[in-house]
Amino acid sequence: MLLALASAFILFWNRPLENRNQIPTYVEPVSVRTDSTAPFEKPAFSIPITQPVTIERYFSFMDALVRQYDTLVPYALTEHMLVRANPWIIDSLENTDYYRQIARGNFVADQRKMTILQTGDTLILPGPKAANLLQSSIQATSLDINLPAFRLRIMEKDSVLYDFPVRIGKNQKKYLALAGGNVDLRTHTGTGEIIRINRRPVFFDPVTGKQFTHTKRDDQRTTWMPLIPWIEPAIDGNRYGQMIHPTTNPRTLGKPASNGCIGLKEADAWRVYYYAPIGTKVVIRYDLFEESNTGDTLRYKDVYPPRVSRKKVVGKSVVALYSGDNQDCWCGH
To answer: Confidence class of residue 333 from pLDDT cuts 50, 70 and 90?
Structure first.
């Protein structure tokens, strides 16, 4: 089950980063209830944030913490473990969503400058019992995507933790310069796992091959592309280049509107990232009938008629475009 940590450590943002190289020092831990069924257990460490950390410096900061503390705890410390042990961080990242800020009257031209970790915040490294519970939860988590329903669900065993609207690939073939030929844009179905994450994507227009750094939003304003990780599943052992990533145009959710990728709201993409580390099982299915929570039968429109194989990519293999942590992303906004 998910860990519920004490609210005494939850503080929020808003100043620029002054010293990105400064790493917090050790503070005497206090007792924190980490799970409703677990006994009180002291966290391994309580880490105070001494300087604000912006999204632009967030990943390098978290990597530095993992390197510093990994050998000091009796379990494998990762960025995902650290953040899942401090779930308020995900809440803070979700609130950087451009459209959430617009709803509050704030126009944010460059989300990379927004502050996530504020001076006075405290991060918890869980004790061994809490870490084991959290690791079991992570290992039991999977992604379930039903294309005609336009839904992505984060599952823990048979339980639905989160249910998000998505957009999927268009029902057409199109010439993509980066693929070197015509590509079937429909999203492939099958079973696989997350094999790669890209925390600093570089964006290219798949049709023209030109790099871009800005995006036009649904409200017709232009902003920098957000720095939100993209994750790549391999499906039935194949890499089709269909990433799971945020879209800057949420009006396209619930539609076949991408070049094969699975698009989410920015806020939802942050949560999916932290619930789907490398190795997470992914099921992409095409079920026109589903049973609702109340037992009713749901029927969805067949968005990919006729039902034919969607596993052939014409032209240059897109696999060559995805080979490194900082590899380019070409699926579009």
So the answer is: low
Token reading at 144: 């379930």
DSSP-derived pairing of the beta strands 281-285 and 141-146? parallel
Residue 298's domain comprises 141-329
Q: Are 216 and 74 contained in the same domain?
A: no
Q: How far is CA 82 from CA 73, 196, 270, in A?
A: 12, 19, 15
Residue 274, phi then psi, degrees to nearest 5? -80, -10
Separation CA 290–CA 244 (nearest Å):
23
C-alpha angle 107/113/119, rounded to 5°?
115
Per-residue pLDDT at 166: 98
Indicate yes or no: pTM above 0.85: no
DSSP element (H, E) containing 93 = helix 88-94
98 and 229 assigned to the same domain: no
DSSP string over 9-29: G--------S-TT--PPPB--
H/E element holding 60? helix 55-69
Q: Do residues 229 and 199 touch, judged by C-beta distance below 8 A? A: yes
Q: Which helix (H) or strand (E) holds 45?
A: strand 45-48
Averaged pLDDT for residues 270-284: 98
Give the number of other CB atoms < 10 A from CB of residue 214: 13
Same domain, 115 and 198: no
